[in-house]
Amino acid sequence: MLKRKLKIGILVLLTAALLFNGGCWSRQEIEELAIVTAAALDTTPNNDIQLSVLIIKPSALAGGQSGGGGGEENPTILVTATGKTISEATRNITKTLSRRIFWSHNRLILIGEDLAKSGVVMLDFLSRERQTRLTSWVMVTGGRAQDLLSVESELEKTISEQLAAMNRNRISLEVKLFTFLDMLAAKGVTPVVLPRIESFTDPMAQKGKQKKLRLNGAALFNEQSKLVGWMEESATRGLMWLRGEDVSSGVITFECPGHPGSFISMRVRDNSREVKVLVGEERLQIEVKLIGDVDLEEADCPTQLANSNFIKDVEKQVADKVTLRARRALKEAKDLQVDPFNFGMVVKNQLPDYWDDVKDKWSTQVFPEVPLKIVTEINLRRTGLTTNSLKKH
């Protein structure tokens, strides 16, 4: 009798659970979604925001197209609309589509030059939209961002996949959306700095596919999050060293010590920075120590590569190169009155009382006048599989 009542009780509970289970109320069917893989943001002549998105074609999702520059149809479509805000522009795009915009697979956010100059704080939508992918890459271009989305990818299926892969290669500055939002939130302490992407014409490429993309330097923003200038590629490498960014894919090439016309290439395998802030009797001073480990990648020097004197000379040459790039980055930033190195954050953490006095004028008045000492320490870790040069001494 007891077992029977237990079975009835379980049956009643299961029935009640089924009655209150309304199914997956928030489900999103893939055939109802317009999946965005890249977005470009520009301004219009009347100062509206122009939003352009690359959307995957349904046939591509079904495996009907391969793309990647193989002569087949592009697996994406480019759709554009305008609005007073990104949200309004998104709704206006939806009016032209049979599917709902879906942001969760977006890999790339491109910002046009005119929009960047007017300020990127209007990108508030990106921090609020629940579908936003915080690991999306954020980049700036000199010109209209929309134009870059029309460039045909050669190795990858879509241009968004190509640009995401270029960022992963760490050949230049890289900024993801969550880092970008942190920069905006830490106004006055961590100014916005973003990688620059540009299109160029390759005369040696196949006809019809001569327009290509490349990472080339960085975009610098002031405390109002407005674009104020560009930093060229060599200085950007110095910027990355001073910021403590990973430059492990970087290659430094120079003439072999004592052998003009012969060259050596070193690959950075690890790097770090140490920052000290000192307050003297008259003003603030900053000391930065840049530390790097390098491997010998290529050398046509007519000398014994394992020779201790040669190693010391090479380490000094690399250190001098790194220091030169860092000083170039420092000068360009000071000329623009911006601090993309996060030195303001270091001062805030180490000298909070001093920071309270200077925070409102740090970038424009204090930082440009701060003496900064750079010490670079380089260690050669590996010379490869051979210690001898193929060039005869």
TrEMBL record:
GO cellular component: membrane
Keyword Nucleus annotated: no
Example GO BP: spore germination
Superkingdom of the organism of origin: Bacteria
Record domain Spore germination GerAC-like C-terminal: where: 216-384
Domain spans labelled Spore germination protein N-terminal: 27-198
Keyword Calcium applies: no
Keywords: Germination, Lipoprotein, Membrane, Palmitate, Signal
Pfam family, one: Spore_GerAC_N
Topology class, membrane: Lipid-anchor
Compartments, as annotated in UniProt: Membrane
InterPro entries: GerAC_N, Spore_GerAC-like, Spore_GerAC-like_C, Spore_GerAC_C_sf
Primary localisation category: membrane
NCBIfam families named in the record: spore_ger_x_C (TIGR02887)
Protein family (similarity comment): Belongs to the GerABKC lipoprotein family.
Entries under PANTHER family matching the protein: SPORE GERMINATION PROTEIN B3
The protein's name: Ger(X)C family spore germination protein
Source organism (scientific name): Metallumcola ferriviriculae
